[in-house]
Amino acid sequence: MRFHLKKTIQIVVVIGCVLVYINVYLSTKSFWTLNWTSEPNQRTPRKNDVPSTTRES
What we know:
Keywords: Membrane, Transmembrane, Transmembrane helix. Residues 38-57 are annotated as: Disordered. The chain crosses the membrane at residues 9-26. By secondary structure, this protein is mainly α. It has two helices and no strands.
């Protein structure tokens, strides 16, 4: 039981690290693309999250 619990916690920690890594990678990537492609006054941290809604409206 203790070994199973330890393994479960290990898996959760690994998944958490992967999610954080992906989040940081995407945010830095979108931050750099926003810096290069858009005007300075259009820089918003969550612009890459909803590109379709802003384009369609």
